[in-house]
Design the sequence.
């Protein structure tokens, strides 16, 4: 915990880099009063008027969100506006609203309490999940609830400020982020939040620097304080001294210069100067992201997260609905390949017909769920196979831990092919299949696994978690989640060697693949493909095109001899600075 400082002392607070950029300016402490809801008894005669208050508040809330939706679509496009479409759908959910009105009449309680109590049930389910994505969606539901309660009470919401400012707040909703952006906002800094929050996603789209997860920013910052945020390093500096301001300004200029050099790189191949080609792909979860991936120069989709359909819908979609989404992605990316990961869901994600588990990360998830639900699995496999008639489609199975799971999945895939053949529905009979290496047993059995498939893709997010026994959502040990740990690097080397021995290509789709410090190392270890967030793709391509593969191999050999993550990270940072001095590396 940061200790209180004098009003003249420079204070650094570390957080999470959520949107790139550097901002220096006066702070504005944005506080929102969370509605305090108390249960109040009403008479039976008052029930009708209480329901009218509720309906009026719902209508006003929808009108507000429609305005925000229109502004967001105009400024950021339809994809970034979808969160507000989802919130509007909640306001129009007749099952929810009928239940609330029925409870008001039967229980004779005030509208604020009943809507609070009813929506809190959904929020509680989401917060009980261990998955960060579901936690962030719980905050979105919370935002809708607070908006309704505020409108029931006819309270106004602040949205204007004078002059330039960096917004500092405990948390920001997507609506806050959009509405405040109509002012002269230099950046956002919040105590709470993660990189998957919709507020963070919108900040990136708005190109407004943001740092989240600061924990104590609102404790140490007052409105009017001069502060700086570094959206690359994930840092907030309160009362920065002249030397710090100068350092940040130099860094910002260096980054601007580097970004100018990236213009035109999208059309170039991810090929080293000595002609070693790395397939550079993108990780996405919505069809609308395909266009951006192509604009960034992606040579395919290395990870399409199909489970987003289930999470968004709250139910398993029918075959036709899945097919339409998959076809759209396959056609949009053709002739480049698209790897559809089958539903990686269960355990730590709230899905239909599942129960809360004591240890979800070691529980019923990924391929285990789908093999236990063969009808659901066959539906998805049929949908993906049908999409293969419209583009270059590949199928990937997640969370595989033993050989039996691969063979069982392949048998179901064959059943799906047979059923499509019987129905005279076209598909690619030679569709390539692969699996993710995410657990230690898969590392050890990588050669046997490779003999069963066409490719392996390393999911570093889970692999590091299991390999190092570190829950990355647990702030007490999250600093131990380190992808430059020597054990991680040696495990990657084992996987690559095992796969190549069986003549299958090896990719990586975890966050490590998108770390510029790791690129040269991964090239040297022999990775054939890297799949990254589309926004970082040009930077990774620049590194690949700047370093000879023979030099990268020497780097990897050196890294395999080092014993600590600090040694490895310092060596790689020094290397990148020397090879590509314009790259903004900390």
Sequence:
């Amino acid at each position: 915990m940061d200790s209180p400082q004098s009003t003249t002392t420079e204070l650094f607070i570390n957080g999470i880099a959520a949107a790139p950029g550097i901002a220096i300016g006066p702070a504005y402490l944005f506080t929102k009063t969370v509605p305090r809801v108390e249960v109040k008894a009403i008479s039976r005669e008052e029930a009708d008027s209480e329901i009218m208050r509720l309906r009026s508040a719902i209508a006003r809330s929808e009108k507000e969100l429609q305005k925000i939706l229109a502004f967001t679509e105009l400024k950021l496009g339809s994809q970034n506006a979808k969160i507000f479409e989802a919130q509007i759908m909640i306001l129009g959910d007749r099952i929810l609203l009928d239940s609330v009105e029925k409870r008001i009449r039967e229980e004779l309680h005030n509208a604020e309490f009943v809507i609070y109590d009813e929506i809190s049930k959904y929020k509680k389910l989401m917060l009980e999940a261990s998955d960060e994505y579901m936690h962030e969606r719980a905050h979105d539901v919370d935002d809708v609830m607070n908006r309704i309660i505020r409108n029931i009470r006819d309270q106004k919401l602040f949205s204007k400020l004078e002059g330039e400012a960096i917004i500092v707040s405990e948390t920001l909703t997507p609506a806050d982020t959009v509405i405040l952006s109509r002012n002269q906002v230099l950046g956002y800094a919040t105590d709470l939040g993660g990189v998957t929050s919709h507020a963070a996603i919108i900040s990136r789209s708005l190109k407004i620097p943001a740092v989240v997860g600061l924990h104590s920013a609102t404790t140490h910052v007052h409105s009017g304080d001069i502060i700086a945020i570094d959206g690359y390093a994930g840092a907030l500096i309160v009362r920065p001294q002249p030397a710090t301001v100068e350092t940040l300004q130099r860094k910002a200029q260096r980054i601007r210069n580097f970004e100018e050099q990236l213009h035109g790189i999208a059309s170039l191949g991810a090929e080293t100067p000595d002609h070693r080609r790395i397939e550079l792909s993108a990780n996405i979860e919505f069809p609308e992201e395909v266009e951006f991936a192509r604009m960034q120069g992606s040579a395919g989709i290395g990870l399409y997260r199909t489970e987003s359909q289930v999470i968004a819908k709250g139910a398993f979609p029918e075959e036709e609905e899945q097919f339409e989404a998959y076809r759209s992605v396959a056609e949009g990316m053709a002739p480049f390949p698209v790897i559809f990961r089958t539903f990686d869901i269960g355990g730590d994600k709230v899905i239909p017909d599942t129960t809360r588990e004591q240890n979800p990360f070691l529980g019923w998830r990924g391929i285990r769920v789908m093999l236990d639900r063969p009808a659901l699995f066959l539906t998805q496999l049929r949908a993906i196979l049908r999409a293969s008639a419209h583009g270059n489609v590949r199928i990937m199975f997640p969370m595989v831990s033993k050989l039996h799971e691969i063979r069982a999945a392949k048998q179901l895939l064959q059943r799906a092919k047979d059923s499509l053949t019987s129905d005279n529905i076209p598909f690619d009979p030679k569709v390539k299949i692969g699996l993710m290496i995410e657990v230690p047993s898969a590392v050890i059995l990588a050669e046997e696994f490779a003999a069963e498939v066409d490719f392996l893709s390393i999911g570093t997010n889970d692999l590091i978690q299991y390999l190092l026994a570190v829950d990355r959502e647990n702030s007490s040990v999250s600093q131990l989640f380190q992808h430059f740990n020597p054990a991680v690097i040696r495990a990657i080397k084992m996987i690559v060697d095992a796969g190549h021995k069986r003549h299958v290509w090896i990719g990586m789709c975890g966050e490590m693949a998108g770390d510029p410090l790791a690129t040269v190392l991964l090239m040297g270890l022999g990775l054939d493909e890297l799949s990254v967030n589309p926004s970082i793709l040009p930077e990774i391509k620049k590194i690949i095109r700047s370093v000879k593969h023979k030099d990268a191999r020497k780097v990897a050999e050196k890294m395999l001899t080092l014993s600590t993550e600090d040694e490895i990270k310092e060596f790689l940072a020094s290397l990148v600075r020397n090879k590509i001095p314009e790259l903004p590396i900390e």
Remarks:
- The chain has four domains: 13-32+158-261, 44-152, 279-436, 438-459+485-586.
- The first strand starts at residue 11 and ends at 14.
- The two ends are 23 Å apart (CA to CA).
